[in-house]
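Suppose you are handed only these lines of text.
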Amino acid sequence: MTTTSAPSVTALTHWVDGARDETPAERLLDVHNPATGEVVTRVPMATVADVDRVVAAAKAALPGWRETSMTKRAQVMFAFREQLNARKAELAEVVTREHGKVHEDAMGEVTRGLEVVEFACGMPHLIKGEHAEQVSGGIDIWSIRQPLGVVAGITPFNFPAMVPMWMFPIAIAAGNTFVLKPSEKDPSAANLIACMLKDAGLPPGVFNVLHGDAVAVNRLIEHPDVAAISSVSSTPVARHVYETATKQGKRVQALGGAKNHMVVLPDADMDLAADAAIGAAFGSAGQRCMAVSVLVAVGDAADRLRPKLEERMAKLTTGPGNQASSEMGPLVTAEARDRVADYVAQGEAAGADLVVDGRTLRVDGHDDGFWVGPTLFDNVTTDMSIYREEIFGPVLDIVRVDSYADALEMVNASEYANGVAIFTNDGGAARRFQHEVEVGMIGINVPVPVPMAYFSFGGWKASLFGDTHMHGMEGVRFFTRAKAITGRWPDPSHRGVNLGFPTN
Ligand code: NAD
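From them, the structure of the protein bound to nicotinamide-adenine-dinucleotide can be written out as follows.
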C-alpha cells in the first residue's frame, strides 16, 4: 500500500454520527484488489483531530443509548441481523474485492460474524445480574452489569467483517457506544456494516468508523474518553496496545498472532488428516489466525501423509476470489506476497526440503495480482525461521517427531498458543492432549477449532494479552462492569447505632 496514485477512484470516508464524514482527508492511501493489483478505493488516514471528533460523537451519543431500553437495543440488533442476512452476499463481495479470499470463504466469514449478532440479540438475558435474599436481617444483595462508555475496536485485515462483529454487537447491545478502527488494507466492509446498522435503526453516533493507522490507534489508546480497547492484530502491535492502554488505566483485550500446530498420531485416519491439513493451511491463502502452519507428524505419519498432501495440492485451484473455480485467492498486498516469498527462500536456505514451491505460480490474465501458491516444506526443524515465525501465507511445514511426548513438548514450547489440533482415533490420547496442552483453543480431529459465538474465542501466551477472550460470556463481561447493591427497607428492628461489623 502506498500513498495514493489513483485520484479517479471514489475515496472512502470516516463514518461519524450516522453519516459519511465530509471533513477533507489530509492523507489517503490506496486500497488494491489483490487479484488484479488495481486500486479500488482510497482510505483516509485519521489525524489526532479526526480521532477526537469521532470520539466526541460517540461520547455525545452515549447518554441516549445507554438509557434506551434493553428491549429496544435488542430490537436494533434483531433488525441488523435481518440486514446482514439480506445483504450477506453484498458484504462478502466487498470482502473478496479488497482481501482476496474466495467468495464462499467470505460468505463463511460473514456467517460467523452473524452468529455473534444473534448471540448479542439475547443481551437482555445475558446481562442479568444475581440476587440473594435475606443475606442478613431484612437485607438483600443484588448485582447488575452496566456499559463501560465509549469503547474502541482495532481490527486486522484478515477478517474485515467477522472480527469487528466479535466486538461491536456485544458492546452496543450492552449499551456502549463504539469506535471501530478497521484495517487500512481492506477498509470498505466497515463502512458497509455502518450503513446496515443505520438501516437497522441504530441512532447516530452509537457506531462510528475511524480509518487510519498507528496515529489513530495511539490516539484512541491515550484518549481520556475511551474506556476500553478491544484489539486483534499481530503480536508486536497487540503487546504495544496492551502495554500502553493498560498504563492509561483502560480495560484491554489484545489478541495477537499465531503459529498453529496440527499433531497427527500414527493411528489417525490419514485421508481425513490430509484433507483437514490442506483446508486449514491453504484456506484464505493461510491468512487466518487459526490456520494450521505446522504439521507435527508422529512416527511414520509423515511418510504416509506427505504423498496424500502432494496429491491434493496438485489439484488445488488458485485464482481470483470472485471466480467460482477458485479455491484459494491471492495474498492481501504486494508486501505480504514478498514477505511470504522471502520466508520460503529462508526455509530453503536453512535446509528444509521444499516439496512444493508456490512462488512459481502464475494466474492467467492476472499478472499483477499478489500470488503465492500453496507451498509445502518437509523436515523442518524448530530452529528455522519458517517454524518459529508467523508467515501468514499458504506455507505448510512438516516437522517429524518420534513420539506423542515430543509433539506435546514442541507445541508447549511455542511462543504462540492460539489454536492446536490433534488427529487420532485414540480417545485416551486425545483426552490426555486436551488436558496437557498449553493452548487456548483445541481441535480433536477438527483442524480449525474456532468456537461458536456462545463460547469464547482466544489464545494464550503471545496470542492474547489481557484477561478475557472474545465473545460468549467473556465478551459480555469485557464490555460491562459489575455493581453490587446491598439494600433494606426501613424496619423498626434496625434502629440503634452500631459501630461493629455485622455478625449476621
Ligand atoms: P497488524 O498488526 O498489521 O494490524 C492490525 C491493526 O493494528 C490494524 O488496524 C492496523 O492499522 C493497526 N496497527 C498496525 N501497526 C500498528 C502500530 N505500530 N501501532 C498501532 N496500531 C497498529 O495485523 P494485520 O496484518 O492486519 O493482521 C494479521 C495479524 O493479525 C496476524 O498476526 C494474525 O495472526 C493476527 N490475528 C489474530 C487473531 C486472533 O484471534 N488472535 C485474529 C485475526 C488476526
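What can we learn from it? The CA atoms of residues 489 and 495 lie 12 Å apart. The longest helix spans residues 48-67.
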